[in-house]
Amino acid sequence: MILETLRRLWYLLNRRRFERALAEEMAFHQEMNTREGRTGFGNTLRLREQARDAWGWLWVDILWRDFLYALRALRKAPGFTAAAVAVLSLGVGGATAMFSLMHSVLLKPLPFEDPARLTLGRRTLNGVLNSNVSAPDYFDYREQVSSFEGFAAICVMARKATVASADEPERAYFTYVSPDFFRILGVTAEAGRWFSADEARPGGPDAVVVSADFARRRWGDVRKAPGEPLAINGKAYTVAGVAPEGFRLVHDDVDLWAPMRRGEEVASLGRQFHNWWVVARLKPGVTLATAQREMDVINTRLARQYPDTNTGKGLRLDPLQTALAGPYAARLFVLMAAVGAALLIACANVAGLSLARGSARRSELAVRAALGASRVRIAGQLLTESVVLALASGALGVALAFWLHRLLPFVAGLGGSHLAPGGLEWPVLLFALAVSALSGVLFGLAPAWRNSSHLLAQDLAPGGRSQASRSGGTLRSALVAGQVAMSLVLLAGAGLLIRSFGRLSTADLGFEARHLLTGEIQLPDSAYPPDRRIQFFDGLREELAAAPGVEAAGFITALPVRNPGFDLSAWNPERPPASPVQRPTAMRRVALPGYFRAVRIPLLRGRDFDRRDREGAPLVAIVNQELVRRLFPGADPLGRRLAVDNFGPQPSFFEIVGVAGDASLNIVGESPYPAMYFSYYQQPDATMRFALRTEGSPESVTGAVRRLVRARDASIPVESVVAMERILGESLAPAEATATLLGVLAGLALLLAATGLYGSLAYSVAQRTGEIGLRMALGAQPADVLRLVVRQAALLAGAGVAIGLAASLVVTRFLDSLLYGVPPADPATLAAVSTGLLGVTLLAAGVPARRAARIDPVIALRRE
Amino acid sequence: MRILAMPSSAEFPPGALTLLVLRILHSGSLHGYAIAQRIRLLTGDVLEVEEGSLYPALQRMLLKGWVMARWGVSETGRRARFYRLTASGRKRLEEEMAQHDRVTSAIQLVLRNA
């Protein structure tokens, strides 16, 4: 068997020699025949073919010959080849780039050991996903659970901390993880080790894991890091180990991970404070469903044990990868589908081109048929041409994708997130190959079959216009109508997204974002006790308000849109909730006087804070409208009290002295959420953000801010100084990018569909020149001819638009999660898009129509 | 397209060609023409191999490794390709002859006793 294959290979490589030998052999035989007076030798050609067939892998042979033939044929038609390659490479390139993005976000396994068994656990309240888990709950889960071989946690908040060692301090992001976190993920330390049992113990030595980048920045080499001392926010730590290169989970830019220890820091908070996500590894063979059931049982038990805090609480387990990619998934799928549709349109377009070209080659194909080629073989040859064309375009497309895929993450709204792809990986290249080949078959099959049919003797005569060209007409029309229909769907989607983005960008934010400079200042705990903090920020505020170029200065713990901050339970003491777990929450903010004026959030009732509201004075709060709507419906809240959870047994009570307008707290376009503002003099936080209303451009006062802060304390950095408008822009970027990309795709699709229609009509007119000439000779006016052609175009376009509309109604429903203020079946958008498309297509039909009307009947009839 | 058939000779039983060629080559190496000639002579012109069948069959046997070919000089002084049996060809010949005997005996049984 193996020998036989080897012999075949040998034959293939030496084919010419073998054939010459055979020819010589047969010549000898023939000579002998004649010598002996015998006649008849048989068909030498056929013999040679048979001999060859005995040796070769027939299909390899055929494929190779078809391939060479295809190359020659394509070279002879440069116009067609260029057009087809251009269109297809764009399509394949776009699809590949998009798939590359999808692959790295959704499909590529996470860089952890056995990632399929990793799950993410988040809290649900009465079945609705709520998000974070509390530390005591986590510890209880961990003790009681049995479906997992590892149950870790990571703090959802990451804070900036000042890190110092021997040399200069820097600011880095810092978070907590359970001590077995890295081990459960199955990653090996780049240097050093993970947390030891001692370091995991409450009260044990303080250790921290650093990122590879951080270690290199600080100590030059990652191997030098373990064992080094590090002061974080003044507290002394030792570096235990270095995380693997590029390690990222949940947070994009954390450099320091400290162990979560029971009773310390964030892990010391009670059951009603939720700051953690669970990252757990299932035992081999245990399904997610089983684990989920176990969690439900445990949660029921906890609810019974701690009815105040755990009623209705659950833990939802999701596969880690899909959970993390969740927010991006919708957008990616939409874009992928759009790119796929564009590729299909490209294929249909090239198929139309192939059909037209096939008619021009009828004589060539007829010769082949006459020589004995079967229809299957001819169709096979044509199909090979299409596939070769597609593969060549695919190669070009991959080159295009290399360039595109660097841009795409930003376009798709993923920016610099950890999910952005690195290079083009082999599954993506495989995808490109598959898509190219498939496209080739797709656009080549129908034309190949059509062009190889009814090859009669009359086709051998040049210029033979048999009825076969007419029968290709239905296929061509279908292709054009299909392109128009799909373009409509893309246009509808783009239109909806663009409108939605328009609504989003003009949405009422509740404050004035222009001419607003923002930034962050964190005071170190050790050097700044509460009274010094008040002194610092209050003084700074006054200086800034007086600075040139600054109209007003505001200080707040969490800026709108930029810093969601955290929420606390707050309720109306006159209508207390039945149990603590049912207490409503409101976002907490602390402000200095003048904040509302600076950001232009209207104070609808009551007053702003002032110096009266200081320590020792009655506790005051300003609430937003949404809070009033929820907690004090239909009543005047001024003068009433607000009960707020304060980590202690009894809540604190605040007198409501003002009502402010609602402002977007988290992202643009969210629904209103209750918020409460407290006086800074009564709750002086160490980290404050400022918002300066400037007369000119916001950046112009940056220098002044830094100067004033430096004058107060040279060791305090001013961070994240950026104009509010830029933050808004970044928040809107994904929506803008998706709308833009879809718009571009739709535009290209429109162009393709219009050219497809134009091409088909022009071809049809050329075919029917004789018929039109006849009509005109019999009395038809140019206007009649014009009407004839335009009617044909209108029918095609109309059919396409009708199908497209029907399809749009179904497809746009999937866009629902991405739309803001615009319904998926928005009639205005659909109407606009339909009319636009019809208009463009009819315009495209104009040229062939006019050309048809100008046909000289004499010339036309003479040609027939 | 059909290959010319000599009306006077009998139809060539399928599969028999390989057996005959192997047997003929067993006695010594021959070139293609000589093989055809030998078959004609030995069967008294009853079986006639056409070139269209012989050469493909020889090619197939080369592929399978049952024969080997070498260029030599014919009796007329012209260059010709001589085929000879290989070891595996010899084995194949034995197998095919045994098979042929079995089949022929079976047919005989039916013809005699049916």
What does this structure look like?
The complex is a heterodimer of chains A (864) and B (114). Chain A contains 25 helices and 24 strands. With 864 residues, chain A is of the alpha+beta class. In chain A, strands 1, 2, 3, 4, 12 and 13 form a 6-stranded antiparallel β-sheet that branches. The mean pLDDT of chain A is 84. Chain B has 114 residues and is α+β, with helices and mostly antiparallel strands. Chain B has 4 helices and 3 strands. In chain B, a hairpin with a 5-residue loop joins strand 2 (67-73) and strand 3.
Q: What attributes characterize this protein structure?
A:
heterodimer; A: 864 residues; alpha+beta; 6-stranded antiparallel β-sheet; 6-stranded mixed β-barrel; 52% helix; elongated; B: 114 residues; 55% helix; 14% strand; disordered N terminus
User: What general outline of chain B do the C-alpha atoms trace?
Assistant: globular
What's the pLDDT, averaged over the residues of chain B?
A: 83
Structural class of chain B: alpha+beta
- Gyration radius of chain B, to the nearest Å? 16 Å
Poorly predicted runs of chain A:
none
Strand proportion of chain A = 15-25%
The helix-and-strand class of chain A reads: alpha+beta
- SSE succession of chain B: HEHHEEH
Give me the number of helical elements of chain B: 4
Give the percentage of residues in beta strands of chain B.
5-15%
Count of DSSP H/I helices of chain A: 25
- Give the overall shape of chain A: elongated
Overall pLDDT level of chain A: 84
Give a short account of the largest sheet of chain A: 6 strands, antiparallel
Tell me the span between the first and last alpha carbons of chain B.
40 Å
